[in-house]
Design brief:
Number of strands: 0
CATH class of one domain: Mainly Alpha
Order of helices and strands: HHHHHH
Keywords: Membrane, Transmembrane, Transmembrane helix
Largest sheet: none
Protein name: Peptidoglycan-binding protein
CATH architecture of one domain: Orthogonal Bundle
Structural class: mainly alpha
Mean pLDDT: 74
Radius of gyration: 68 Å
Distance between the termini: 186 Å
InterPro entries: Peptidoglycan-bd-like, PGBD-like_sf, PGBDSf
Helix content: 40-55%
CATH topology of one domain: Muramoyl-pentapeptide Carboxypeptidase, domain 1
Length: 215
C-alpha cells in the first residue's frame, strides 16, 4: 500500500520568481562635463609673478584729474579785490589823521608841575597803649605782691580753719600764702581765678565768710 504524498512537497505551479536587482544609473556624463569645464577654465588663466602683478596694478591705476568748480576763481578774485579796497581805504584814513594830529598836539600846553611842594599832614601822636587788663580782676593779688591788701588777705585766711594755720601777717605774698589761697579755692570750689591767685571770685567768697572787725 502506497503512502499519500506530503502536501508541502507538492510542486508549485506557475512561473518561478527570481530575485530582482535594482540598478541606479550613475550620471557619469554630467560629472565628466563638469571636470572638462574646470580644466578649460584653469587653462584659460595665466600665471603671473608678484612683480608682474605690481606692474599691472600701477599701469591700471590712473590719477583722477582735479575737480574744477565753475565760478570758483571768479569768487576768489572778487574777495581779493574787496580786501585790497578795504586796506587801501584804511591807509588813506590813517594818513589823513596823521597830518591833522601834530598841529593839535603842538597847541596843547603841557601840564606844568605845581610850584608848591605837597605838604604831608602832621602825623598823629601814637596812642598810648592801654594797660593790660588782668583776667582775674582789677584788685588781683598774686605771689610777689606786698602791701596792706596782702595783710588784709592774711588776716582773713587766719579766720578759715586749717587753711592758713600759724601764717604770718607781714604783708608779703610769698609761696606759703599762695599755697593757702590755692587750698581755700580747692576746699570751697572756687573756679573763677587762677590757682593760688587772689582774684575777684576768691576775694568775694573770702569776704563773705570772714570779717576783719572780729579780731
Amino acid at each position: 500500500m502506497s503512502t499519500p504524498p506530503d502536501p508541502s512537497e507538492e510542486p508549485q505551479r506557475g512561473p518561478v520568481l527570481e530575485p530582482v536587482r535594482v540598478l541606479r544609473p550613475r550620471r557619469f556624463d554630467a560629472l565628466a562635463e563638469l571636470m572638462r569645464e574646470i580644466r578649460q577654465d584653469a587653462e584659460g588663466y595665466e600665471s603671473i609673478t608678484p612683480e608682474q602683478r605690481a606692474d599691472r596694478a600701477e599701469e591700471e591705476t590712473q590719477e583722477l584729474p582735479p575737480l574744477r568748480v565753475p565760478g570758483a576763481h571768479t569768487g576768489r578774485g572778487l574777495r581779493r579785490a574787496a580786501v585790497a579796497a578795504v586796506v587801501g581805504a584804511a591807509a588813506l584814513v590813517g594818513f589823513g589823521g596823521a597830518l591833522l594830529l601834530p598841529g593839535r598836539g603842538d597847541a596843547a600846553p603841557s601840564a606844568a608841575p605845581s610850584a608848591e611842594p605837597s605838604r604831608s599832614a602832621p602825623s598823629a601822636p601814637p596812642a598810648a597803649s592801654a594797660p593790660a587788663v588782668d583776667p582775674d580782676g582789677a584788685g588781683t593779688l598774686r605771689e610777689g605782691d606786698s602791701g596792706s591788701e596782702v595783710v588784709a588777705l592774711q588776716q582773713r585766711l587766719l579766720r578759715i580753719p586749717d587753711v592758713y594755720r600759724d601764717g604770718a601777717t607781714d604783708g608779703r605774698y610769698d609761696a606759703v600764702l599762695a599755697a593757702a589761697v590755692a587750698r581755700f579755692q580747692l576746699w570751697y570750689g572756687i573756679r573763677g581765678d587762677e590757682t593760688g591767685v587772689y582774684g575777684d571770685d576768691t576775694r568775694r567768697d573770702l569776704e563773705s565768710r570772714t570779717s576783719l572787725a572780729d579780731g
